[in-house]
Amino acid sequence: MLHKIQIKGLRVFAHHGVFDFERQNGQDFYIDATVWVEGDAAAFGDDLSKTVHYGDLAKGLVELTKSQPVDLLETLAQRLLDYTLNFKGGSAVKAKITVHKPNAPIPYEFDDITVTVKAKRDA
Fold first, then answer.
1. How far apart are CA 40 and CA 62, in angstroms?
2. Could you tell me which of 23, 24, 36, 41 has the fewest CB atoms within 10 Å of its CB?
C-alpha cells in the first residue's frame, strides 16, 4: 500500500533568481514536498529504516536549495524532485515538489508564484 508523506511550507532563505539583486540580497522560498512510498514494511514493523525519514528529507531539501543558485524556479524544482525521488536509495515510488516564491519581483499585487513538478519511478 502506498503511503503519502508531506512536508508543507518548508522555508528556505536562498539566492535564486534572474536579477542580480535577487542573487545578492536573497529571499525566502517555500517548498512543499510530497513523496509516496511502499509503506507496509514500515507501518507493520514500526521501522523507520523502511520509509522516508521526513526530518532527513527536509534537511537535504534545505541544503540543496541553499546551494548553487539558479535563474529559474523550474530548475530548482526539478533539482529538488530528483533529490526526493532518489532519497536514501530511491525508496520513493513517486514525488511532487512545489517551490513558492512569494516575493517575486513583478510589479503587480499577487499572493504567490509557484512551480510544481512531479514524477514517478519507472517500474
1. 28
2. 24
Q: Which of 66, 101, 118, 120 is catalytic?
A: 101
Cell output for 63: 541544503
Domains of the chain and CATH, by start: 2-120 (3.30.1130.10)
Q: What is the structure's pLDDT at 64? A: 97
The burial class, CB within 10 Å (0-12 / 13-18 / 19+), for 91 is buried
Task: Give backbone dihedrals phi and psi of 93, rounded to 5 degrees, phi first.
Answer: -85, -40
Contact 65, 12 (CB under 8 A): yes
Segments in the chain below pLDDT 50: none
Decide if 4 is catalytic: no
Residue written as grid cell 508531506: 6
